[in-house]
Amino acid sequence: MTVWSELTGQAEAIALFRAAAGFQPGASADAERATADATASGPQNQMTHSWLITGPAGSGRSNLAYAFATALLSGNPDGDDATAAQVAARSHPDLQVLTTEGVIIKIADVRETVRRSHYSPSVGRYRVIIVEDADRMAEHASNVLLKELEEPPERTVWILCAPSEADLLPTIRSRVRSVRLRVPSVADVAELLVKRNGVSAELAERAAREAQSHIGMAQRLATSAEARDRRHETLVTALNVRTVSNAVMAAARLMAIAGDDAEAITLQRDAAEREHTLRSLGIAPGQAIPPALRGQIKALEDDQKRRAKRSLRDGIDRILVDLSSLYRDVIMLQLGRTDAVINRELGGKLDEAASRSSPAETLATLDAITIARHRIEANVAPVLALEAMLVSFRRP
Fold this sequence. Notes:
Blueprint: H1 11-22, H2 29-38, E1 50-54, H3 61-74, H4 81-88, E2 95-98, H5 107-116, E3 127-131, H6 139-150, E4 156-162, H7 170-173, E5 177-180, H8 186-197, H9 201-210, H10 215-223, H11 225-239, H12 244-280, H13 294-334, H14 348-355, H15 359-377, H16 382-391
């Protein structure tokens, strides 16, 4: 197995990164020959100090970034097990990761990362810095990063990840090499789920289809019956809206579902983090926290609250994406495209919804979902945005 083995649907990007890692200055002759066998050398395969990986949610941006980092840090275009283990644990001395569990990346974190980017690599040829969700940087934080990209240290490599180039400042886009990922096919994602999680081919196909090829969400649907049940309830709730009062109650229910989903993701992780922190501070279970250490525990709790807020917003957005797939199915049925349905398990409910409205009304519903997403991104109270959206779902 190589570091690229569990990446799916991105053959072109993998070939590019593998070639760049293999043909970097100072690479071993064996690494160069191994890469040359797979990809012809040329200007398009040369190494550069800053990269931007873009692609839709679930396309594997961060996974590809970490695989590329492993290849660079190991000095082998296919990586090695020891380096891969260190990168997976985020413990490699030459790897720095800038990410956030909150809604935005704080400028203080960007400044600290920039400062550490000037450290010389300790065991390899490069110091690699990965910025997950670079689109979450506000403009002033982006400007701090921009100055670093203009005059980077010679042996530091930046790898930024974002949904699209438009999410970053034009000045940053002009200083990075952009690699665009495509949406993996349902078959590719299903094959990965079978190989990685050992689920049945039928369940893997359903999860990949319902997740619309979002790899992380497909894995969650394939391995959690509760997640599948919550998704099904979301779609049925939307289809049952008949009156304004139905819409208001449905909005409250969708908020509760998003909350349950976020809690399922964060609750176990929060408890494990708190236990680990207490143990590292030498505090036994049930022991009172000394006043001198309460600040550290408070900082952990604040981080967990920010993560819970982001998880809730991400859960609401995922509900809206699922609703988009639902009404996309409705309009496909109205136009006679029965082969393109995503939510096949709803069966007769989709047919009934298609018969109760016209294609123009369904398009208006899809527009309402898009407006709701924009409103929530603009910090409108999510429950109000959902209520306004669901009122437009009413069908007599």
